[in-house]
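Table 4 source record.
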Amino acid sequence: MKDTSNQIIRIAHIDEELLFIEGMTLVFSHSSLFDPVIVAHNAPEFLEILASTRSENLPEIILMEIQLESMDGFDLMRTILRQFPSIPVIVLSSFYNKVLLTHAVKTGAAAFVSKDASLDDLKTTILGVKKEGSHYTSENNEMLRAFLKGSAKSMYFKSAEKVSKREIEILQLICQEHTNEEIAEKLFLSPRTIEGHRQRLCAKTGAKNVAGLVVYAISNDFFTPDLKYY
């Protein structure tokens, strides 16, 4: 797995709270880990800058507030992920609750962080997303479980195809944050085989990423978050 510890990560940030985004830009500018390559105060401006950026200069991580006046935040996320599917999106929001968290995961967010979080927590999340593709904490998973255990869970991921016993086994290990290599070792399979299972699970469930698979597993009672895994 790629080591990101000594690499500067290009960050894009969209937020309509000027003081907040200017403060975060200052923090990133003085960091040896992050380079704020795109900063925008409204959604149309952000999309325009992204579209005009050369591929080699595109951000590696996008931070976005989900509650925007210039455009629905979820529509913006869907547009970003459709046009730039290889760039993970982290929601960094003042509106941190289980409904928005669950909808963000379903839409394809790689992580969801409250603006009340510490800078260290944000740094850990960004590095986790850069390394693994997504990063959800035990608190996130407990919020997802609390939301999905009620009647609302029927609104979310349901598989059109039957999930096999082996796929459920792999899904549970994914939920416990094991890597492809670790799962392969546990099940005496190759990492390539595990990645194939992961891709088929996403295709069957409609999940956009690992976080979506966690939502699917919780909503279908294949996995119950346990703090010992985090």
